[in-house]
# Entry
Amino acid sequence: MKAHEVGTILSDIAALLELKGDNPFKIRAYEQGARIVEGLGDQLEPLVREGRLHEHKGIGAALSEKITELVRTGRLAYHDELRREFPPAIFDLLKIPGLGPKKVRRLYQTLGVRSLGELEYACVENRLLTLDGFGEKSQANILEGIQLLKRHQGRFLFSDALEAAEALLAALQASPDVSRTSLAGSLRRRMETVKDIDLLVSSDSPAAVMERFVALPGVAEVIAHGGTKSSVRLGSGLQADLRVVSDREFPYALHHFTGSKEHNTILRGLAKSRGLKMNEYGLFRGDELIPCSTEAEIFAALGLDDIPPELRENLGEIEAAQARRLPDLIAERDIQGVFHAHTTESDGRHSLEAMVSAAAALGYRYLGISDHSRSARYANGLSIERVRAQHRAIDALQQRHPEIVLFKGIESDILADGSLDYPDDVLDGFDFVIASVHSRFGMTEEEMTARVVKAISHPAVTILGHPTGQLLLSRDSYPLNLTRVLDAAKMHHVAVELNANPHRLDLDWRFCKDARDRGVTLSINPDAHSTEGLSDTRYGVGIARKGWLTRADVFNTQSADQMRRTLTAKQTR
DNA sequence: GCCGTTTTCGGCCCGACTGTTTTCAGTCG
# Structure
């Protein structure tokens, strides 16, 4: 059984234990175990084989045994046992805002509600009113929550949420009552998808800020409206939460509301062990505030290096900050040029010339053009003749654009048998080749892994494109043994793409650290299908940061001259 | 469930808001 499946089952157990009303610390242990296992990816199986699971902090004897059983047999007796206690569709009820495990359990045990549909029916029949703790208002809210759940999946792309959040922040910043503003929550941590928008502002007039917030254009509904905290729903269905604090409290509150929950929990425990108390209003020794004007000072007061928001997932960052071994994360300015840009020759929206001008205007020192290869008929892939014509066009354009180095490339389909889409003599004519899977997703893991490994081992390949094929919120990755693929990439000096398109963000940040540890270089590519798409690189940098990558770990931080040498060396290898 | 430079047992973070509760539980982050 694969790591993400094991993680799902551990999360499932945590949810079931919550429904049962079990020990909250035990529940937390299962949740943390799930997160650790998901981050292990294909390393999980060898760790189980070698009996080394317990070396990961947070996995003890009991979890180790259960994970081993899952990996070896694909089942877990304990999980099966728990599952028999509740109907499977009951989990859907937990996704309704305002419904937690306690209320869901009561709905099930007293009304026999087992699914969203049954709950909706029970609401329509006013049956919730007979239950203690439920009234008119909660019944109406639940009905609304069910409608919302039907319309959206409850999660949104980072890029969409960021755009909405920045508009809200700008409107708040314009208020004379507001001094500082910031993004917070999962958006600030740069999660690839988010459930809501968290905003923080400092002000001496919180009530006025709240009034302004709930009345902003774009607000479709006010969910909560308190003295220092309000929640609204935007027309898009996205929920936005705003918290107001004093300016003195701002850094503490910013840390608090950035999270993650898991990171905060550990940090507050750390504070407590040092005789301190930590909350959104400050860091205290007894009643005395330890003054901090930035988050970095708060970390310092706890004996930690400054932890960038992207890393705050309780996945090793606190230990690294204690040991003064946090990575110097890559920044947008480190990106010297980009690969993976489409033009109107295949399925891009803008011409070659427009793409080149746009890349130069963005300050990139080089641009790698890679339209689709000939088998990609849906995308108007290039025949050999059209490849040659495009090369002539690029040569001509290079004359007119000395400020940017143009590299001739192709995004070659990886055919079903793992071969590339042109004969070798044509492939040799490119400066670089991105090899990508675009079809036949239904293979077994063994077949797909062999297919990708074979493609990587072709000497013409420079970069493996969108390595897992995931489409956020719509399609899971195809089955693939990523560890074998990464090892093959290392062996054949192939960079692995971190596809920066906000719908992909593939390679997933959870696997970036492992790729780096295996000596694999990642290439942050916009996969641009328009001039605007070239800027998507920033989303890729966000994911790279979240994946602990530094400048040295990323392919396209090389200067244009270095890159020219790198590509030539690869060709003559 | 996990964990230990106090500990192998007894801890394990903290506060705002809502709704329905007449003093607080549940949810959320």
Notes: Chain A has a mean pLDDT of 92. Chain A has five domains: 3-83, 88-151, 156-245, 258-322, 332-572. Residues 156-245 of chain A form a domain with the Beta Polymerase; domain 2 fold (CATH 3.30.460.10).
